[in-house]
Each structure stands twice: as C-alpha cells, then as structure tokens.
Specification:
Elements (H helix, E strand, L loop, with lengths): L10 H8 L4 H18 L10 H28 L14 H4 L4 H19 L2 H5 L2 H18 L7 H22 L4 H24 L1 H7 L4 H5 L1 H18 L1 H5 L3 H5 L1 H18 L5 H24 L2
C-alpha cells in the first residue's frame, strides 16, 4: 500500500489507522478460548457450546483492537510521541495528517459504542458480569496509551488483556466456569502476544528514551530485552505441558512449530538490532502469533 498517496479521511486513511495486521493479536486469544470450551463442553452437562457467542467474542475483540489503535494513534500524536520524521515503525494516521484530530475523536467514540453494542449480548450468555468485563476493557484501552505504557507496564496489560481476559472470558461465556488449564493457557497466550510489544518497543527504544517513554525495553536495556523476547516464547511453550498432562499431547507438540519460527525471528532481531529493518521482524512476530494460536487450537480439537 503506497502510504505517500493517502488522501485525508479517505477509506485508505482509515484502513491504515485501523492497523488490520494487529487483528491477529485479537483473534488468537478468542481462538484458543473457543477451542478450550469446545473441547470441554462434553464435561459439563449444563454447558451448551454456542457459535453465536463465539462469533460475538471475536467481533468484540476485533472492535476493541481497532478502538485501541485509534486511541493510541490519537494520544501518542497529542503527546508528541509520533514524530513523522524520526518514527521507525509504520506511519500513524494523525501524525501523517491522513486523519484529522476531530475525525479521530469521533471515530474513537463510534468504535467504543460499537464495541459496547457488540459486547452487550454476551451478558445473555455469560451473565451481567460481562458488562463489568466490557467496562474494564474500554478503560484498559485508554489507560494503556495515556499512562501505563509510559511507565513500563504495557507488557502487563498485554498479558492481562490479550491473554487472561479474552481466553478465560471466552471460555467462561460458554461453560460458566474456568479451570487451571484455561488459566495457564491464557497466561501462555499473553506471553506469546507480548513478543509483538517487545519487538515494537525494541525497535523504538532510542526514540522512546529521548521522549521519556519508559517502556520495559528502555528500563531493562537491549540485551535483557532480547532475552525477554526469546524467553516469552520458550516459557509459553513449556506452559503447554499442561495440555500434555491432561491428555492433549498435540496441543503441546504442534506449538513447537511456532517455537522454531520464534527462535528464527529472535536471531533475526539480534542480527538487525536497530532501524526500520526491524519492521520485518514485527511482521514475522505477528505471523508467529497466529501460527501459535492455530497450533494450540488444532491440537485441542483434533482428538
């Protein structure tokens, strides 16, 4: 896509602002939660698996991800964190002038409302506590960009909102319970997706340090960050031993394909080290995340 010929507020501008490639991170936790619920549905006589609820979970996750992207774009530009001259990552809509600030404000309000409309029916399946979950998710979108990511807590939010919350809630909506296996799987999922934030912040570490954005990568340094990137993938796969323990060997074995890809991407990050070339590793990490989710889900349902 030619980013140099984007008309202000055009469909192309909004597509770039929505960052469709990031939807992988929204889909994978729901995919794993659905697979776990599908696998366990027979164990709960009162639990009936609903594809409608599964689809609503996916749509809610997608909408919240787009909402988070709009919020990030808007507030990072207002905070002076998106400089179109020094930015190494993909260009941002507000900073490039592709989307006007007033238009982005309205888009944030609209996507937040759409997420609420999509998510509200989940209360029928999972109880009114789902409303509280939705409120927490919306609050997390705003707090991530405006405060927590600048304090080095972005990785914690990724593990919570891309691991624990979506996997466990997707499962709970179906079967109205949660298990140790589901909790461990949710933590592993959060770790895998956190690799995307790590490589993103690793690429931006010098710029972030200059503007006072104290991400975890800035705080712990280059070498430790590289080991952290490698470590989240390794630990996530080791946590998959819970599947083996419960008789689902494929759910442990198949993600080893992901681990191989993850290690290869780690070696590439280590070799490139700096600059825009790390965007290639960002794309590979997103691909690896999807491979992980697909491998876990297939390993759970192929019995």
């Amino acid at each position: 896509m030619d980013e140099q010929k984007v008309r202000t507020n055009s469909p192309k501008a909004w597509l770039l602002a929505a960052r469709p490639k990031t939807l992988t991170g929204a889909a994978v936790p729901v995919m794993i939660g659905v697979a776990l619920a599908w696998m366990d549905a027979a164990l709960y006589p009162d639990g009936t698996f609903s594809w409608t609820a599964a689809l609503l979970c996916l749509l809610f996750a997608f909408t919240m991800q787009i909402d988070a992207n709009f919020i990030n774009d808007f507030f990072d530009f207002l905070g002076g964190l998106d400089d179109k001259e020094t930015r190494l990552g993909p260009r941002r809509a507000c900073a490039q002038g592709w989307v006007k600030l007033d238009s982005m404000k309205r888009a944030i309000a609209l996507t937040t409302c759409i997420a609420c409309v999509v998510g509200l029916p989940l209360a029928w399946f999972g109880g009114w506590e789902m409303v509280l979950v939705g409120v927490v998710c919306v609050a997390g979108c705003f707090l991530y960009t405006t405060h927590l990511s600048q304090l080095g807590l972005g990785d914690v939010l990724v593990i919570v909102f891309f691991g624990i919350v979506p996997v466990c809630v997707t499962y709970y909506i179906q079967l109205h319970t949660c298990t140790i296996q589901v909790l461990i799987a949710s933590l592993a999922c959060g770790l895998v997706i956190d690799a995307l934030l790590i490589v993103n912040n690793f690429r931006d570490r010098d710029n972030d340090r200059q503007v006072g954005k104290n991400t975890l990568v800035v705080r712990i340094g280059e070498k430790a960050s590289l080991m952290l990137y490698l470590g989240v993938g390794v630990v996530a796969c080791l946590m998959g031993l819970v599947f083996w323990w419960n008789g689902h060997i494929l759910a442990f074995v198949l993600p080893l394909i992901y681990l191989l890809l993850h290690v290869l991407t780690y070696l590439k990050i280590k070799r490139i080290n700096k600059g825009k070339a790390l965007n290639l590793c960002l794309g590979e990490t997103a691909r690896n995340i999807f491979v992980y989710g697909l491998c876990v889900a297939l390993g759970l349902v192929l019995i």
